[in-house]
Amino acid sequence: MKVVIASDSFKGSCSSLEVAEAIERGIRKIDQDAEIVKIPVADGGEGTVDTLVIGTGGKYEEVEVVGPLGKKIKTKYGILEGNIAVIEMAAASGLPLLKEEERNPMVTTTYGTGEMIKAAMEKGCRKIFIGIGGSATNDGGVGMAQALGVSFKDQEGKEIGYGGENLINIYDIDLSNINSSLGETDIVIMSDVSNPLCGPNGAAHVYGPQKGATPEIVKLLDANLGYYAKVIKEKIGKDILDIPGAGAAGGLGAGLMAFCNASLCSGIEKILDLTNIEGHLADADLVITGEGQIDSQTVYGKVPVGVAKRAVKYDIPVIAIVGSVGEGASDVYAYGVDAIMDIINKPMPLREAVQNAPTLIEDTAENVMRILKLRNQIASNV
C-alpha cells in the first residue's frame, strides 16, 4: 500500500513535517510495510519556506532585518534549485513575532520583508516567491518599498515613518534610488487572498481586527489606504485600488504590485507544483491531508482542497485529519475530500489539545488504518 501524506501545519502545535511524521507513526502501527511518501505542504502562509526547502532539497539563508515594531530580528528565507528564493513575509513582519498586546497596525511595518527581498537579490536570485500570510501590518507595503529604495516624502520633504497611520502623510513618491535589481527580478506573490485594497472587503476591514485594530482604527486605516492608492496613481501612474489581491497582508500585495511589478498566483497550487506532488500520486493508494481547522474557508485555496483536487485526477481516495471541524466543513466533499477525521478523542481544553497534538494525530492515523483494514476484511468476505 502506498500512502502520500500532504498536510498543512497545525498552527501553534505542529509543523507540516511534524504532522506527516505523526501520521506515519500511526500508519506503521497497523501496516509496517506501507510505502509512505511525506510531502510537507503550505498555502503561502506560515510554513511556506520550510515546506519548500525541505520538500525540494533547498537551503536556508539567515539574515538580520527590521521586525514589525522596528527592532532588529534574525530570520531566514530559502533558496531552491536554480537560485530561486522563497520568502515568508510573516518571518519578518508577521503576527507570530508579536505578543498580543503589541499588535498595532498603526505602527507595524513591512520594512523587514523588503530587506529579505533585497538580501535574496544580493545573493543573485532573480526569481523570488513570497508567501504573504500571517502579516502584522497594514502599511500597504510602504515599509517594504522603503527598504528597496523607494522614498515616501511628506509635505516638508521628510521621509514618513513606519506604519499604517503614516500613509496619510505621503505627499510625493521618489523612485530615483529604487533597487536596480528589481527590474531584473521576477517576484511572484503566493496567496489565495483576493481582497481589494479598500472597502468592506479590503485589507483593514477584513484583517485589521486580528492585528489589533479597533473599529475606529479600521476606518482610519481604510481611509489611509485609499489615500495611498490615490497618490500612487497620481505620482507613478499605477492604479492598484481594485486589483484582486491588493489587500493581501495589509496591502503588501498592492505595494509589491506597484513597486516590484509582482504577479499573483495561488499559493497552494504553486507549492504543489514545486514539490512535484503529482509525481508521487500516479501509483498511490491513499492520500492523507489535513490542517488545524477545516471549515467553509478551506475550499478557498487551503491545503486539503488543493491536495484533493490533484488526487481526484488519479481517482485516489483522500482523508483529511484535522485539529477541529468548523462550520461548513462538509463543503470540501465536493472538491475531492472523501472523509474528515478530527483528532479530539474526548472533551479537552484547547491548550491540552495543542500540547498533545502529535499523539492525537498519531492515534487518529492509526484509527484510519484500522477502519481501512476492517473494510478490506469485509470486502474479502463478501
TrEMBL record:
One of its GO terms (molecular function) is glycerate kinase activity. Pfam families: Gly_kinase. Keywords: Kinase, Transferase. InterPro entries: Glyc_kinase_flavodox-like_fold (IPR018193), Glycerate_kinase (IPR004381), Glycerate_kinase_RE-like (IPR018197), Glycerate_kinase_sf (IPR036129). GO terms for biological process: organic acid phosphorylation. SUPFAM superfamilies: Glycerate kinase I. PANTHER family: GLYCERATE KINASE (PTHR21599). Belongs to the glycerate kinase type-1 family. This is Glycerate kinase. The lineage of its organism: Bacteria, Bacillati, Bacillota, Clostridia, Peptostreptococcales.
